[in-house]
Specification:
396 residues; alpha+beta; Chloramphenicol Acetyltransferase; six-stranded mixed sheet; five-stranded mixed sheet; 27% helix
Amino acid sequence: MSSATNVDEKLSLCDFIVPVSYTRLLLIYDYVIHDLEKPLLKFLYNYCPSAFKRISDNKLIDSTDHPTIYTHAIDRNTSLSSLDIEHTDIFPYGRIPDKESPLFFLHQLTLKDGTILAIGIHHRLTDGHGFINLIYRFSVWMSGEQIPLLFEHNRSLIKKKTAPTILYQHREYYSEDSLLLPSIYCPHVETDVIVRHYKKQDLFNMLNITSKHVSFNDVLVAWLTKIISSVRHVPSKTIVKVGMPTNGRNILGLDENYFGNCVFYIYIPFLMTDLESSSVDELSERVHEERKKCMTKAYIESALAYIKCNTTKSHSSIYPIFNRFGEYDIAFSNWSRFPMYQIDFGHGPPKRVFLPPGKRRNGMINILPSIDGDNEVELYIRLNQIHVKELLKILK
C-alpha cells in the first residue's frame, strides 16, 4: 500500500479522460450529527492527502493556499420534511470546479430534526467507487471500528496494465482535435425526473425473465431502453446508443483500495426495430453478451492502449462516446453496489441518498441502492418533460 509521500503524482490514463466536474452526493440523516470538521481533516490528512492538492497539467500538485474543504451551516427553523431536496441547491460549489475549488468538499447542514451532508469530489481525483469508499471509511473510522483504511494512491499502476498494441475497435470512445470545441450534441430541453423503486424478483416476474444468467442490471438496461425508446417515438431505422461506465479494478487485477479512476465504458447500439420486436428477456441477453465482451482483461488493457495512443497525438483529446449522445440515446450509471446506506455517523444510516443530476441531461438514468436491501434499487430517470407523462403511464 503506498504511503502519503511515495506516490506517482501524475494523473493516469483513466483520470484525464473523465469530465472536469464534481461527482456530488447528498446524504440525508434524521438525526443531528456533531461538527465533522476536525475528524474529517484528520482523516483526510492520514488516508487521502491528495484531497488537499490541486490539479494542473494532468498532475496532482501541492496547493499554495488552503482549500476550503469543510463548511457548516445551521438552520434550526427548517425541517427535513419541508425541504425540497430535488430542487434545493445545498452545495457550496457549482457542478464544474475551477482553479480555486478544492478537490474534495463536505458541507454539513444542520436542521431542526436532522443533518444533510452535501459532499463532492473532483472526478479526476477518483471515480464513484473511490468516492463512496472514502466517505464510508471515514464513517467507520469515526466509529472506532478497526478495518483496513489505507487506499492505494499509486496511479502508475494503471500505466502498467496497458497493452502494447490496440487489439479491438473501441467504439466506446472518440477522439477530437483539442484545439477545437468538442462537438458534443446536447440540445437544451426541459427535463424532469421519475423516481421508482424495484425489487429484483418482482421485476423479473413482471417481465417474464427466464434467462438464468442475466443480472438485475442487464434487465434494467434492456427494459428501460425498450420502454423509453417507445415513448420517445424513435424512428424504426434509428440506432439507439446505450452506454454505461464499469469498474475495471477486479478485471485488471488491481486492489479494490486503488483510489484513482479505474472507469471503463460499455457501448451497446440497438436498432429501434429490434427494440420493438424483441422481448425484454431477449434484450437482456443481448446486454449481457455485449457487457461480457467489454469486461475482459484483454479488452480493457487494449482500451488503455487506445487511450494512450490518442492522447499522445499532438492536440488530440479522447472522450467517452457518452459526450456525443443525442436525443434518442440513454446513459446508465449504476451505484447500487456501493455501501451508501452503510455510512453511519452514530445513530443509523442515512434515511435517503441522492445524486443530483448534472446539466439536466435528457436520457440519464442513475441506479442507486435502496435502504431496504441488496435486491431492491432506486431509479432516477431523467427525461424530456414531454415524455415523462407517457412513461409514467407505462410504469404504473
